[in-house]
Amino acid sequence: MIRSIRLRWVLVITGFALVAAACSGLSEGPDSATPAVAVGAARAGEPAPNTEFSTFDGDLAAFSDYAGQPLVVNWWASWCPSCVAEMSAAFLPAQQELGDRVAFLGLNIQDDRVAAVGLVEETGVLFDLAEDPDGALYLELGGLGMPFTVFITADGRVVEKHNGPLTEQQLLDKIDEVLLG
Hints:
By secondary structure, the chain is an alpha/beta fold. It has a single domain (2-180), classed as Glutaredoxin (3-Layer(aba) Sandwich). It is built from five helices and seven strands. It has helices spanning 2-24, 81-98, 113-123, 136-140, 168-180; strands at 53-55, 60-61, 71-76, 103-109, 128-132, 148-152, 158-163. Helix 2 (81-98) packs across helix 5 (168-180). The longest helix has 23 residues, at 2-24. The radius of gyration is 15 Å and the shape is globular. The N and C termini lie far apart (43 Å). The model is unreliable at 9-40 (pLDDT under 50).
């Protein structure tokens, strides 16, 4: 319980810091067109962790279940306005366009189950959905803010991480660059 509360405060404080950094231009990477990415346990080029998580259908799954297909993993929550907007404005259309070439997984983090399911129904997302209830997998991959997206190659390597919202075009460009290019 205390860890859950602590993680929520870390997410809130980190979110404010990321917004402030984005507004001041500090969140950009070496070239101004590339946003900074988080560095966590699974660094770029390393295998994605094979930690199991529960799907919304109640099954156990892991990133390795997607072996052979590039995977885009997005952490979201119903209490995160940027996540809500990104889900229907970027991830749903990208999945509809690339769903036969790229797998999409939405990991819900520290959320009320009823609110999470309600948002899924409201947005009409069709990609796989699972839970990271205590944020352990989020932290293992180096999440710093919400939403948080990780790009994993067909052979299971983490190639890029992105903290903060993505537009549909940014998401499509990133998928093309790091997973399909």
